Amino acid sequence: MILLLVASAFDTISRMHSSVVSLPDDPIQLKTEVAQLRNEVEEKEQALTEKNQRIEQLLDYILLLRKRQFGASADRTNKHQVSLFDEAELEQLLAELDLPSDLDADKPATQKKAKDEKKKPVRRPLPAHLDRIDKTIDLSDEEKAAMGDDWIFIGYDTSEQLAVIPRQHYVIAFKRAKYAPRNDDVAGAEQGIKIAPRPDQILPKSIAHSSVIADVVVRKFVDGLPLYRQEAIYNRDNIDLSRQTMSGWIAQLHERLTPLMAVMKQRLYQGRVIHIDETRLQVLNEPNRENTQLSTMWVYGGGPPDKPVVWYQYADSRSGDVPEEFLYPKAEDPPDGAMYLVTDGYEGYNALSKSPGILGHGACWAHVRRRFVEATHGRKNTAAAHQMVALISKLYQIERAARDKAPQERAAIRQKKAAPILDKIKTWLDEKVTKVLPKSPLGGAITYTLNLWPRLTTYLEDGHIEIDNNKVENAIRPFVIGRKGWLFSGSPRGAHASATLYTLVETAKANKLEPWAYLNYLFEKLPLAKSEQALMDLLPQNLKMEDLNR
After folding, report:
1. Which helix (H) or strand (E) holds 7?
2. For 7-36, b where at least 16 C-beta lie within 10 A, e where not — what string?
């Protein structure tokens, strides 16, 4: 063993001696070679650092993908988890704001229940508007005879069960009266037989009543039920109604609803804020495009707060020119009024934000929070991510307290309570951005937030502006869910029709109307609407549920 050690030492000494011997005698040349070696070492160290950073980034992505695949879908963090990560630092951050005592000042004092107290299950009463069918259950004749005259009837013990009658289809037979002249001398006899006119229909000469058309639309655009599944349901009821027929109804509805939609679009500009979001859509048979190319469904949320409008627009492009041309067409005079714009971080909205009709551009804090929540599931810097999630939660706490306030009061509350938190968040971001890897989940979240910072503070300017873009995020969700069932649109015409009908049902829901009741009412009354005022009266914003039940 000793001999092996001695041999190894001699080998090391000989290699050192050979390297020394090989060094040049010229000092200048020696300095050059040393500099070259130093550069090579630095380059290798830099490459090694980059590889390690890439490995860390990929490991974070793996954890994030596992969370998305197998974890909870909601962007939530464990409220007890923050205590595991620098709780003292977080408390110091919040204490510096001097806000915890003020945030709940506007809330009524309520007695909080113990966290671990288990609620007893309570059966909710069944809806009062449902028809009741009484079924009396009595003792048998033998039991009553055995009781004799010592017992008297004192009433019933009532319990209720929810029951259903499968949907029933029936046929409406329109019998149009016909009249014939008694003889040729009767005035007007030359015209022949007189017959009562056909009733006006949303789809002339169609076999479908407005109730059936409304049912097909609601099942597809509210419940996400593709037409081929509806075809199968009708077949189970022994009704031959093909998906092609239903698809034709939808396409015709788009054309019949065009005047109504033109009137509704005017409502978009009557609010103080316009929200916009977009999602991908595959459309077949688009001119000059491959079927594999994706198109875009744009969603706009605007109108007065008490009479909102949710508008869908199909386009074959995701370019920012689409919403700009939709809201402010170059060939038309700009609409009256100015609005704030609220979007996510997509750069395509930059051009629209510079339009003369846009007062300012707000960004979505929900998107920011989502990125930091994802960072809490990373391998490193989870404490910092939890701190930012907690600070953002304070902003939303203020919004909940000011939700029912007038816009001016809500703006004042934000200036007093939210502005200091935003200053603290900005300071926190500036400090952390130099201490984390730019491509890590936390680094990406910080960079994303800093790039949008001017827009993220826009909501302080006006109490009408929301802190996030959830208004259209929630409206676009039914489309995304439905897309999982029907996958694509068969043609641009079908995509335009889908946009129109999604606009109607989502606007009806936003105005607290039951979609089927509204569409059934609309399809019955629309053929009779011959003026702009008559069309205005049919908008969801001008109707209530009691109007639909008349």
Report:
1. helix 2-22
2. eeeeeeeeeeeeeeeeeeeeeeeeeeeeee
CB count within 10 Å of CB 298 equals 22
Strands (E), 233-377: 273-282, 294-302, 309-315, 339-343, 358-363
Dihedral angle of Cα 6, 9, 13, 16, to the nearest 10 degrees: 160
CB 344 within 8 A of CB 371: no
Across 93-122, average pLDDT: 52
Compute how many other C-beta atoms are within 10 angstroms of the C-beta atom of residue 330: 7
Closest alpha carbon to 485 in 246, 227, 146: 227
- Written as six digits, the tokens of 262 are 């033109």
The whole-angstrom separation of Cα 49 and Cα 43 is 10
Within 13 A of 17's CA, how many CA atoms are on the CB side?
A: 6
**Which of 270, 275, 324, 277 lies closest to 297 in space, CA to CA?**
277
| CB 495 within 8 Å of CB 501 | no
pLDDT digit string (tens) for 40-90? 787 787 777 767 766 666 666 566 666 656 555 545 555 444 444 444 555
* Entry pTM: 0.78
- In angstroms, rounded to a whole number, what is the distance separating the alpha carbons of residues 306 and 328? 24
Q: What is the three-class DSSP state of 222?
A: coil
Structure tokens at 433: 């951005």
pLDDT digits 0-9 by tens, 233-284: 999 989 999 999 999 999 999 999 999 999 999 999 999 999 999 999 888 8
> How far apart, in whole angstroms, are the C-alpha atoms of residue 236 and residue 531?
42
Whole-angstrom distance, CA of residue 135 vs CA of residue 130:
16
